[in-house]
């Protein structure tokens, strides 16, 4: 599920986009028995996510992503950098707290 919210504050519009990407290690037919296999394929998912996030960067959205695996990080960080976005990441399970 993704969520887009537009907030008007003091004549300033802020667009917030929130999306749970589903960690790559959980994107398997074992966990998601009702999903088509192609929807769980990493390359298919990356293509869909890249298109949607590119559209959000064009709108200068604040983007919040959940369930970022190491695979998602290595795929997304360079894309955000080319769009002049600062990538903030915090994960206790990876032991990482940093600005990329």
Structure description:
This protein is α+β, with helices and mostly antiparallel strands and 100 residues long. It has one domain (2-99). Helices cover 34% and strands 30% of the residues. The protein is built from 3 helices and 5 strands. The chain has helices at residues 37-40, 42-58, 70-82, and strands at 2-9, 12-20, 62-66, 88-91, 96-99. The protein has a 3-stranded mixed sheet, with helices on one face. Strands 4-5 form a two-stranded antiparallel ribbon. The chain is elongated, with a radius of gyration of 15 Å. The model has no long low-confidence stretch (mean pLDDT 81).
Layout of strands and helices, then pairs:
Blueprint: E1 2-9, E2 12-20, H1 37-40, H2 42-58, E3 62-66, H3 70-82, E4 88-91, E5 96-99
Parallel strand pairs: 2-3
Antiparallel strand pairs: 1-2, 4-5
Give me the number of helical elements: 3
What is the C-alpha radius of gyration, as a whole number of Å? 15 Å
Q: What's the number of structural domains?
A: 1
| Backbone shape | elongated
End-to-end CA span: 25 Å
**Order of H and E elements:** EEHHEHEE
Number of extended strands: 5
Alpha-beta classification? alpha+beta
Oligomer: single chain
Mean pLDDT: 81
Which strand-content bin applies to the residues?
25-35%
Helicity level: 25-40%
Which spans have pLDDT < 50 for at least 5 consecutive residues? none
Largest sheet: 3 strands, mixed
Strand adjacency order, main sheet:
1-2-3
């Amino acid at each position: 599920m993704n969520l887009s919210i537009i907030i008007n504050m003091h004549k300033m519009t802020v667009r917030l986009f929130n999306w749970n990407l589903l960690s790559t290690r959980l994107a398997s037919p074992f966990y998601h028995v009702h999903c088509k296999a192609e929807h769980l394929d990493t390359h298919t998912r990356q293509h869909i996510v890249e298109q949607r996030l590119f559209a959000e960067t064009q709108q200068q959205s604040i983007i919040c992503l959940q369930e970022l695996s190491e695979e998602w990080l290595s795929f997304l960080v360079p894309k955000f950098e080319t769009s002049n976005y600062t990538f903030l990441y915090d994960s206790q399970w990876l032991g990482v707290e940093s600005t990329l």
